[in-house]
Amino acid sequence: MSENVAILGLGTMGSGMAANLLKAGNSLTVYNRTPSKAEALVSAGARFAATPAAAAKDASIVISILADDTASRAVWKGKEGALSTVRPGAVLIESSTASPAWIAELASLAAQHRTELLDAPVTGSRMQAASGQLTFLVGGSEAGLQAATPVLKSMSKEIVHLGPTGSGAKMKLINNYLCGVQVASLAEGLAWIERSGLDAHKALSVLNAGAPASPLFTAIADRMIKHNYAVNFLLKLMAKDMRYAQTEAATCNVNLTMAESSRALFDRAIAGGYGDRDMASVIEPLRTDE
Question: Which of 49, 93, 185, 210 suits a disulfide with 63, CB 3.0-4.6 Å?
Fold first, then answer.
């Protein structure tokens, strides 16, 4: 059964998600701060809305997929925000990697408008979004998830219900924390390999066949060694996720010391001009160290 869906945000992830919503036969309205990013989707049958409020007005499901808490607040709140027009009974889905504190606030606002919020961030990157192979990490009620499941299935390979509202956001930060630490340590390890005189390709073949290997390790190592920084996951967003992870872990009296040191590498790469490139580019400042 098709739905009237609105998607707010057409960045690295949102564009692929929106394309799959159209392929599944949904009636789709899109909003993006830069309208030109919507042109291909409009040509494929989507409608473009000039504001989040206009996008959400007739939608039964409203999805947001944006960079951070600030961007999320901007599309949901205010005179032109989606919450100003959402209809009672609609399901709101926040798929941004957001802080649990903002998710709790947004859930309260959603309830005031007689709607329900699912926090449903995703694992996967640009390729998985385009191919409909994301995993949704969902927090919220069983009823809300049941209503949203057909739409989520059109964009995903798996939907994991982790518990009440906020559970998805917490799980996503843990996931990205562990990914960020691995990427940062790989950058240091590969810089070491390159300076040591070892053949980098042979060294990586050893590591990829051994205990350090993981799908992330293999993909990021390949990008690093090829200097291929076309965006799959923005470096500046990984730095942001590490900050959010540190803040959230602290509420559980856990000090993420590895996040602190890893984030320092990401922040250094941002200062070096790599913030808007793939997170694999975190290695570049290490390559120029004297």
Answer: 93
